[in-house]
Amino acid sequence: MHIVVLGGGLSGLSTAHYLARRLLLRPGGPAVTQGGGSQFKITVLEAQDRWGGWVDTRFVPLSNPEPFSVAGGEEEGSSPTSAVPPSTASVLFETGPRTFRPSGSEATPMRQLLSSLDLYSDVAICSRASASAKNRFIYYQNQLNRLPTGPASLLFQRPPPPILRGLWGELFREPWRVRQYPFDTPGFAVDERMDPASPVSQFGVPAEGDYSDESIHRFMTRHFGPTVADNLVSAMIHGIYAGDVHNLSVDSTMRWLKDLDRQHGSLLLGLLATATGLGGSSTKRHPASSAHGPNSDSDASSALGGDGGIIGDPGRFWSERAAQLNKRYLQEHQATTENEQTPFWQRMAKGSVYSFHQGSSTLIQALVDDLSQYPTDQVQLAFGRPVHRVEVHNGGPGGSGHVAVHTSDTNSPIQADHVISALPGAQLHKILADQPLPLLNHNPNVDMAVVNFAYAGRRRPVDGFGYLVPQSVTTPVLGAVFDSCSSPEQDQLWNNNGGGAINRPNHPSNTTVDCSATSPPLDRITVLMGGYRFEEMLGHPATYFQNPEGLAYLRQRAQSILDDHIGPVPTGQDAELVASHVQINRQCLPQYVVGHRARLQALRRQMGGDRFAHRLSVTGASYLGPSMNACVLQARQLVDDLVEVGALSQRRETIVTGIDRSLI
Questions:
Q1: What contacts 217, CB < 8 A, 6 or more positions away?
Q2: pLDDT at 181 over 90
Q3: Any idea which of 213-227, 309-323, 588-602 has the lowest mean pLDDT?
Q4: Cα dihedral across residues 463, 468, 469, 470: positive or negative
Q5: How many CB atoms are closer than 10 A to CB 274?
Q6: What is the DSSP string of 573-614?
Q7: Do residues 564 and 47 make contact, with C-beta atoms less than 8 angstroms apart?
Q8: Tens digit of pLDDT for each residue in 367-384?
Q9: pLDDT of residue 517
């Protein structure tokens, strides 16, 4: 059986990793195969000339090496193993994800991945007691407002920063406010209800008057008023989705808050009940959500296909399966923490976030190296091979259909028995030839300009993770990350002979990892610009490509706004810019707009029909979570589902699409 994985980012590579671990004979390891190993072949196709997708670590040469002397007093020309001459040194910049959260059930597969790839020595853990964990800011009313770390700091922070003034009153009024504006209030923010022209209405999901989902802004305004929604909440959403709170779905982005609202009719009462353990198992539901909620299986939707071979309620089936897998993952991880690197896991348990000494691309390179150990007749990795068409030839759910994958470098398509797409939904929609799945193309993606700065000497005004900017502030900047505070181990001069991407095969940075501390110390700051405001504030992203003047403008604009936000360099303190980098990440963050979960359920119905059943499944950030932890979790769940109950199992009793947990 030939399995083709589309996309060589974190989702695609981790999917291939789990497939290989489940189906193939691991070189030098025990047989963990489903059926002998030789009957399976895995091919990973990546369009770009490197692996990693949006995970992209860059080593950028110093533009101004003069402020530096090498720690320890070594002179230029001395042994490169002991020091890096500033004249040939580079600075580490992240243009994509940079830190990972170690806690929560969603993070368990990622923690296990670190273990299976033996990345213990590559990980740097940021403690919960660190300034980066304790100090997070929002830029509001021309100053950095420090956010509370808990109820006590919210209560006793004096004077409260402008962003928090009046918050206590809104919190205590919430149970009464939400009764005044309940979930099904007619006419409340009507413009933010699900669009009646949405494709969802074509697939049996009511649109007009359907309050089973709402925007984050509408939800927060009902509970806490517009000031909290416009400032505090919108800033936090900028940091996660770079999106507009007026359009994003609360059901798909803040599900736990939506569940508290459904169960208790109040977020404050729900949080108190959860904290005290007195909440019971209330199942209070709003009228609309009980009729068209996440576990419903309406007759209109049933017209799109079968129930995936599941007898009974498919929502309950996938809920129980998710609980079963989560329990298994946790047990595996607990066994690992008891038997391997126990001090490491003890530090991880006390961590706020973690990063990699040589950047996030370390994880990508480790996945590529691991997959490269398998014989090429079992695992084939191919980057620089764009897929321009996918044709699903129908053989029925139990028939002999196949998938033809057409790449731009050959006239002969790759014949696959099953295709797993880790591409963004819109890209998959584009290449599905004459067999499109229109709901793949509904959610927009946003563009981001990432501008990295490195200074010789301290530039940041405070210690902390960084700051975010709310929607109420008119600026193209969504926030800034103080990289030297959250990942200080990366503040080195790196000898990588000219910079570039660390995860490019055969690049010198894969083998040359010498580094040295600097004097004065580095201070790295990343400014994030654009998001859903890109075209409004900065123009069309395409105008900046291969345009040095345009990129220079973005660099200057970012530096100017950063200076306004954090203020000038304090008197008597030097901070000289020594390196910078500008990169535009096109269509990099999916936007889960209102109705997202309902559309996923309808898409699942389409994929469960005869044409696509057992032939196509999907994973990645477009569907059930955009974080790196979520992408790895979805990849592992998909592989386990396919191997144990789906297309790769012997019985093939259940149609697995990769988005089946949208029913939960």
A1: 189, 192, 229, 230, 233, 234, 245, 246
A2: no
A3: 309-323
A4: negative
A5: 14
A6: ---EEEEEEEEEEEEEEE--BTTHHHHHHHHHHHHTSTTTTT
A7: no
A8: 999 999 999 999 999 999
A9: 59
**8 Å CB contact between 255 and 594:** no
471-516 tens-digit pLDDT: 999 999 999 999 999 999 999 888 755 343 333 333 333 333 355 5
CA distance 563 to 561: 5
Q: Sorting pLDDT into bands at 50, 70 and 90, what band is 157?
A: confident
Q: How far apart are CA 458 and CA 460, in angstroms?
A: 6
| Cα 191 → chain centroid | 29
Q: Which pair of tokens denotes residue 103?
A: 């806690």
Domains observed in the chain:
2-51+367-443+592-663 (3.50.50.60), 57-94+445-590 (3.90.660), 150-302 (1.10.3110.10)
Beta strand 41-46 with 379-383 is parallel
Q: Residue 527 in contact with residue 139, Cβ under 8 Å?
A: no
Q: How many residues does the chain have?
A: 664
CB 654 within 8 A of CB 646: yes
3-class secondary-structure state, position 385: coil
Query: Burial code of 13-37, b = ≥16 C-beta within 10 A, e = fewer?
Result: bbbbbbbbbbbbbeeeeeeebbeeb
Tokens at 596, concatenated: 């997202």
Quick one: DSSP state of residue 231? I
Q: Which are the contacts of 232, defined by CB distance < 8 A and separation ≥ 6?
A: 138, 163, 164, 167, 470
Kindly report the number of other CB atoms within 10 A of residue 243's CB atom. 26
Q: Which of 34-38, 375-379, 489-493, 584-588 has the lowest mean pLDDT?
A: 34-38
DSSP 158-189: SSPPGGGTTHHHHHHHHHHHHHHS-TT-TTTT
Comparing 288 with 573, which gets the higher pLDDT? 573
- How far is residue 614's CA from residue 604's CA, in Å, rounded to a whole number? 12
- As a whole number, mean pLDDT of residues 127-156 equals 89
Distance of alpha carbon 540 from alpha carbon 264, whole angstroms: 45
Query: Mean pLDDT across the chain, nearest whole number?
Result: 84
If pLDDT is split at 50, 70 and 90, which confidence band does 256 have?
A: very high
The per-residue pLDDT for range 311-353, each reduced to its tens digit, is: 668 999 999 999 999 999 999 999 988 887 788 999 999 999 9
Decide: 279 and 264 in contact? Cβ < 8 Å. Answer: yes
SS3 of residue 327 by DSSP: helix
**Which tokens hold the place of 591?**
């936007």
Alpha carbon 555 to chain centroid, angstroms: 25
Pairing of strands 477-482, 466-468: antiparallel
Q: What is the mean pLDDT of residues 603-632?
A: 95
**DSSP for residue 387:** E
- Tell me how far apart the alpha carbons of residues 281 and 273 are, in angstroms, rounded to a whole number: 10
> How far is it, in rounded angstroms, from Cα 180 to Cα 624?
32
Residues forming beta bridges with residue 381, ordered by sequence position: 44
H helix count then E strand count, the chain: 22, 24
Confidence at 27, pLDDT banded by 50, 70, 90? low
Q: How far apart are CA 423 and CA 446, in angstroms?
A: 15
